[in-house]
Amino acid sequence: MSQKSDFGLIGLAVMGQNLVLNVESRGFQVSVYNRTTSVTEDFVAAHPDKKLVGCKTMEDFVQSLATPRKIMIMVKSNAVEPTDRDAVDAVIEQLIPLLDQGDIIIDGGNSFYKTTERRDAYLEAKGLRFIGAGVSGGEEGARKGPSIMPGGPASTWQVMKPIFESIAAKVDGEPCVIHIGPGGAGHYVKMIHNGIEYG
């Protein structure tokens, strides 16, 4: 495929794979990257009829995306304290030198909201935009329509709104996604949600 992708996702565990298939099914071309190259290759090969671009390197992944780039990270966060560095931070550090001003990084994992606020401030200082988005509904929801709780700047939400609204679950025709608020607001709401669901 010669055209640039509309959306990119890093981390092809089951949630990531299902989100990719959801986004692609709404008419978007999606680039994918996984640290283990064979996972990317196997996933793309399993879906030859889909508008997917499998990338072997982070550099190729970033270059495959239309600007402003919209990149969702779906890797496990294990930071306990806001200052802890984890796999999400490692991916962000890999991305930073490859991105242009105004590109968007979305953390779709269950990060601690204070960690999300640290990342938001850090990336803003570098001219990049960040959304911490809680994604609810599990593996099935990721494929068929999750509830999404995005936090971050309202202007960044406006850029992501068409994609998020198209992939979200619908109730009475309305998408189950709304801008929660600035900074870590989205991950804060997801934390409360998880506490109620699993507590």
From the 3D structure, determine the CATH topology.
Rossmann fold
Task: Figure out the total of helices.
Answer: 8
Given the helix and strand composition, which structural class is it?
alpha/beta
| Low-pLDDT ranges | none
Overall spatial form: globular
Describe the main β-sheet briefly.
7 strands, mixed
* Share of residues in strands: 15-25%
The CATH homologous superfamily name equals: NAD(P)-binding Rossmann-like Domain
The helix content is 40-55%
- The number of strands is 9
Task: Report Rg.
Answer: 15 Å
Write down the secondary-structure element order: EHEHEHEHEHEHEHEEH
State the end-to-end CA separation.
46 Å
What's the overall average pLDDT, rounded? Answer: 95
| Spatial order of the strands forming the largest sheet | 3-2-1-4-5-6-7
Can you identify the CATH class? Answer: Alpha Beta
Number of domains: 1
CATH architecture descriptor? 3-Layer(aba) Sandwich
